[in-house]
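hey
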């Protein structure tokens, strides 16, 4: 897949373009992307980074990093992606100027988007505006009950199983492995401490069963702690993953961690022995946890 941040870097050719932010590439987004893939022209996505609402004064915790979104779009069959760096200047473009600069410039002939898609200054543009410019603009129906807002609510509350049904895949957190305090190693459960991008939504504190995606390898199951480690009086929120039956040096690696099931709240214990015993139970529960079905 070719990824460009400037339309001049994509060859002008007949394209079917799916347009949107596609945060999370959930089931509704995938319906839009599928319409572009099935249209018969070069399937292309025009998306935005950062999220337009972040530039226009809103606070939007993201369901996936841009890198992860691009990986998911590739898996959907998209050939090329134009990432529009969203700025106040881009927001001020009138619909005709936007279409000319970012759609017509790459050869778009078919444009697909979800119901209610708007673009351009003051959100004045819609798919009818594109039809007036001679484009074959097609509306893709919403997938009932599926929205990024709803998924954010579920993830924020720790309902990763419910959120996964709307995503069509497990909820994920992502980050780069950095050094921690090595307390888990001392307890016999060494963890990968993730530096998670600040804009990424992380579920409510607790212990989760999941797995770590490591390229083409099998998914090593992981017991994941999200929180401040209250047993030791911690204050810094962390995401730490203990990979079951795996050893190796992960420092500096980017990890995508799937969260399959919330096991329990984080808590302080009456002794370190009680903490170790509970971690052991968390590990066993992780061994038998079922991965949410991908759809």
């Amino acid at each position: 897949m070719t990824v460009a941040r400037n339309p001049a870097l994509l060859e002008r050719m007949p394209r079917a373009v799916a347009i949107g932010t596609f945060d999370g590439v959930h089931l509704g987004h995938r319906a839009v992307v599928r319409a572009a893939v099935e249209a018969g022209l070069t399937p292309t996505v025009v998306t935005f980074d950062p999220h337009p609402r972040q530039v226009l004064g809103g606070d939007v915790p993201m369901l996936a990093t841009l890198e992860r979104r691009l990986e998911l779009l590739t898996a959907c069959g998209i050939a090329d992606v134009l990432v529009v760096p969203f700025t106040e200047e881009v927001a001020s473009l009138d619909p005709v100027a936007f279409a000319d600069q970012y759609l017509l410039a790459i050869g778009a002939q078919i444009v697909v988007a979800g119901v209610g898609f708007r673009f351009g200054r003051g959100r004045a543009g819609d798919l009818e505006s594109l039809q007036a410019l001679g484009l074959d603009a097609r509306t893709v129906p919403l997938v009932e009950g599926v929205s990024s807002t709803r998924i954010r609510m579920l993830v924020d509350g720790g309902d990763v199983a419910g959120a996964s049904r709307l995503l069509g895949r497990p909820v994920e957190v992502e980050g780069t492995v950095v050094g921690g305090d090595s307390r888990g190693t001392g307890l016999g459960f060494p963890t990968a401490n993730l530096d998670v991008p600040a804009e990424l939504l992380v579920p409510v504190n607790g212990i989760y069963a999941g797995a770590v995606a490591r390229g083409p390898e099998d998914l090593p199951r992981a017991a994941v702690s999200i929180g401040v480690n209250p047993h030791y009086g911690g204050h810094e929120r962390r995401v730490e993953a203990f990979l079951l039956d795996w050893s190796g040096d992960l420092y500096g690696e980017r990890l995508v961690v799937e969260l399959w099931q919330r096991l329990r709240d984080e808590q302080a214990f009456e002794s370190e022995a009680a903490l170790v015993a509970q971690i052991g139970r968390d590990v066993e529960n992780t061994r038998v946890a079922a991965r949410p079905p991908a759809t």
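The chain has a mean pLDDT of 92. The first helix runs from residue 27 to 37.
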